[in-house]
Amino acid sequence: MDCFDLTGRVALVTGASKGLGRVIATALAKAGADVAVASRTQADLDVVAAELQANGRRSFAVAADVTDESSIGSMVEQILARFGRIDILVNNAGIGDTQAVVEMDTAHWDRVMNVNLRGPMLCCKHVGPYMIAQRSGKVINVGSVMAARVARYMTPYCSSKAALVQFTRTLALEWIRHGIQVNALCPGYFLTDMNQEFFSSQRGKQFIKALPIERLGESRELEGAAVFLASEASSYVTGTALYVDGGHGLA
Ligand SMILES: NC(=O)c1ccc[n+]([C@@H]2O[C@H](COP(=O)([O-])OP(=O)(O)OC[C@H]3O[C@@H](n4cnc5c(N)ncnc54)[C@H](OP(=O)(O)O)[C@@H]3O)[C@@H](O)[C@H]2O)c1
């Protein structure tokens, strides 16, 4: 299955210090890629990069804030200086929170939109010219099952993820002539820092029971989809949203 082999490719994964970003970075490295890992916390990234290096891959930890365009520009320059190219961009950094609209602090709305929607756009803006010049590239925007479903008090999160899917489709059309595929990877619920508190609660446990599959996703269940979207295996797939949600979207 050579089409899944990422040997010689360079990936950048944002929000890779923990959670699903770390899972995706590790999966791409296992498939052969060298991986630059980014988030705001250098110490956490150093741990991830050391782990990838211990497994025989080149890795580079670069602190960057996806809400800050100059930080993104500097991140991309540092990765290009280190690895010379970026073949795979995974826009994974994201935040979630709950707040009722009538109580909405507009700074809260802006924060979620800035990280979840504007951040991926800015990363594409800064990585795009290099992918266009090399006439190849893979962009994976990490959406959510909440791009298509809704939950009470989650308007900024659900809106940002739905918009990210439309951003994905629009950019896929824009970049198809450059040989770049742009897709969204939309997870259902996987246990991470983002939701640990909720899923430890009684309400969270009931929620899990109500899922069609009656359990959360396990990180290994996201790996194959990430490698698929990052590799030659998906060369005829662009502008799609791949849901890895244990059938959550069906209920
Ligand atoms: N967990 C789930 O069940 C689930 C389900 C559907 C979708 N998702 C999506 O999957 C992605 C990862 O979620 P997760 O559950 O793994 O969350 P997480 O464990 O909270 O990790 C979030 C990551 O994003 C980074 N980050 C946050 N703000 C950032 C910023 N401004 N600039 C750069 N990096 C930033 C964090 O690192 P620093 O704090 O060091 O910056 C961390 O590495 C998100 O887009 C989320 O919406 C998750």
Question: How many domains is the backbone divided into?
Answer: 1
Name the CATH superfamily classification.
NAD(P)-binding Rossmann-like Domain
Instruction: Estimate the strand proportion.
Output: 15-25%
- Write down the overall geometry: globular
Characterise the protein shown here.
The chain is globular and about 50 Å long. It has helices spanning 19-30, 42-54, 69-83, 106-134, 155-175, 196-200, 202-210, 220-230, and strands spanning 10-14, 34-39, 59-63, 88-91, 137-142, 180-187, 241-244. The protein contains eight helices and seven strands, in the order βαβαβαβαβαβαααβ. It is of the alpha/beta class and 251 residues long. The model has no long low-confidence stretch (mean pLDDT 97). Helix 4 (106-134) links the parallel strand 4 (88-91) and strand 5 (137-142). Strands 3-2-1-4-5-6-7 form a seven-stranded parallel β-sheet, sandwiched between helices. The chain has a single domain, classed as NAD(P)-binding Rossmann-like Domain (Rossmann fold, 3-Layer(aba) Sandwich), CATH 3.40.50. It binds NADP nicotinamide-adenine-dinucleotide phosphate (NAP). NADP nicotinamide-adenine-dinucleotide phosphate binds at residues 14-15, 17-21, 39-41, 44, 65-67, 92-96, 115, 142, 144, 187, 189-190, 192-195.
